[in-house]
């Protein structure tokens, strides 16, 4: 009986074994294909990085070789430096370096890209490179030479020893094991050298991640935790705040000093009310009351009016709505300071309004609080009619006013602001009121157009 059963079952078992073997082989082949594809992508990104850093060093040398008064040559060289630096940043993001400390090099490249871009878009006939900027360019040239040399060394090892980037991922993931890998060692050496460079002067308009808040813009004296608690109680309109927690932040650095306030929501930490105040003056810079908004009973116009009234009741006076958005039944409205019929865009407040009850559930006012300063709003040298001639003749202008914005050099400039339609889109165009140059163009999304047009009409 067992013999007969064996004879019957044997073919089925054989077929199952063959099927499992074929399936395993195909799975192995598919896995190898994916690994080979990933390895090829890593290798391409690495060799592109080596090429772009090498070209970056060459381009910096070419830029320094021309006469400082040669505006077109300098502009061309700086544009190429910015382009190559941006490409090198893109190459780095494609490499498996998330677990490897390489942030100093990434910050260095980000600052270099920003520096070269700001210099390239500047009118050098009126504002040529100064001695400090030339010094910074020379330092960048020297530093790029060292970085190029180190990355070339890594590239030579990769090519001569057929090193794989997939091994880098495995080595970095093995936290408890020493990283004996030529690629890891090479990139770690590069980051250490970059971290040891003398601090460079990137200029006043540098948009570095290390930019600090200007505490000199704040009014008032330093606050205590108890005083902040009282301010939070007054803002929330509550008398019993026994559950309120106040934490001081920032240590000894004035630009980072603040107080965080948390009020438990009762249904879990995701519903906690959160607030941030500056230590100096106790100014509210952040407020969030998270809750689910299940339906929209009101539109953006109602939300704008409520948000405007809310700002007037607090320390954010003379504000005008400049941007509208709606997501998950919540309106997000951005207001800018309004002074002498001029919109001050660097001073902004973002307000979130729940569209079911028109309750203000969020405020972000960092730009407004730290952007306060005495501004002299002069008279524009060009009239609105003269600036309007610089627009496309196809644009149908629906509104115009004066505005102060920050240009690409992070400088505040007075502009003629035009709202206009073209190609079935609504645009906001800023023209420099001194020379008529176009400073910025923004596209207003269709769902924002109606509210924006009404807001312009009320200015």
TrEMBL record:
Keyword Ligase assigned: no
Domain of life from the UniProt record: Bacteria
Pfam families found in the cross-reference section: YPEB_N, YPEB_PepSY1-2
Residue ranges annotated for the Sporulation protein YpeB N-terminal domain, each copy included: 30-167
Residue ranges constituting the Sporulation protein YpeB PepSY1 and PepSY2 domain according to the UniProt record: 185-376
UniProt keyword list: Membrane, Transmembrane, Transmembrane helix
Membrane-spanning ranges: 7-26
Keyword set includes Transmembrane helix: yes
Name the UniProt record assigns to this protein: Germination protein YpeB
Organism ancestry: Bacteria, Bacillati, Bacillota, Bacilli, Bacillales
Gene: ypeB
